[in-house]
Design goal:
alpha/beta; single chain; eight-stranded mixed β-sheet
């Protein structure tokens, strides 16, 4: 891999991406990082053997720029970068809610931009990274983004018009599962189990269920029915979930997340 890649604003997700790339075969000498604090830059340099540079230096030297700063900081970063980014650089944005047009308007005409929505399981190499092309990005640019993000999990190409839905479903998705585990742990305590035992039971159930969903090829309804005996414990629990509108609440929650992503994209932060 001879392309030089820079990760700008290297926080937790940026560092996870960096370490995933190195595990995937990228040479540290082909990787650059930037960080707001000098001590953070030095930490990354010492930990991964990569070169820490300024944002303008990264823009001049790297073939691909991965922007991992927070959405509210993106405008300031682009103002700093714009004079130094030639139109042949690939710019990858990991900022939720910001469309590729936002970058295209602020960078040199023709700059290829790829938008990626990943999620926090990138920290354990189980991310789902959703990739969309901007106006000037080609299949080659999308493939390059996939090569980078496949180091921390799976990738999926979608039209940019679907990014807000993917943000609601996948980008925010881990939080919904944590919320569910938290509620089930509290239920386990109510039923008389110690917190640590309730936690272990639920986490392993979640892992096992996820692996079965991924590997069995079965529809989730089929897998649920396999657990649901006539007049048994599971169907009684399912009835209560339906009585309390859990399915409808989940749909409404994802719609709310989608709508908030749209608001961020329109600048109503």
């Amino acid at each position: 891999m001879t392309q030089k890649v820079a990760v700008l604003g290297t926080g937790k997700i940026g560092e996870a991406l960096l370490s995933g790339m190195i595990r995937g075969g990228w040479a540290p000498s082909d990787l650059l990082v930037t960080a707001r604090r000098p001590e953070r830059a030095e930490q990354l340099r010492a930990r991964y053997g990569v070169e820490a540079v300024s944002n303008p230096e990264a823009a001049k030297a790297a073939d691909t720029l991965i922007l991992t700063v927070k959405p509210q900081d993106m405008g300031t970063l682009l103002t700093e970068l714009a004079p130094h980014v030639p139109a042949d650089r690939l710019v990858i944005s990991g900022a939720a809610g910001i469309p590729t047009s936002y970058f295209e308007e602020r960078l040199a005409v023709g700059t290829p931009v790829v938008r990626v929505m990943t999620n926090t399981p990138a920290l354990v190499d189980e991310a789902m990274s959703v990739i969309s092309a901007g106006t000037h990005a080609t299949g080659v640019h999308l493939t390059r983004a996939e090569e980078i993000f496949s180091g921390v999990g799976k990738t999926l190409r979608v039209p940019e018009s679907q990014q807000d839905a993917c943000t609601a479903l996948s980008g925010s998705g881990p939080a919904y599962f944590y919320f569910l585990v938290e509620a089930m742990t509290d239920a386990g305590i109510l039923l008389g189990l110690p917190r640590d035992k309730a936690h272990d039971l639920i986490v392993q159930a979640a892992i096992g269920a996820a692996v079965m969903l991924r590997d069995s090829g079965e529809h989730p309804v089929t897998l649920r029915e396999n657990v649901t005996s006539p007049a048994g414990t599971t169907i009684n629990a399912i009835r209560e979930l339906e009585n309390h509108g859990v399915r409808a609440a989940l749909i409404a929650a994802l719609e709310a997340a989608r709508d908030r992503s749209r608001e961020l994209a329109s600048g109503n932060g």
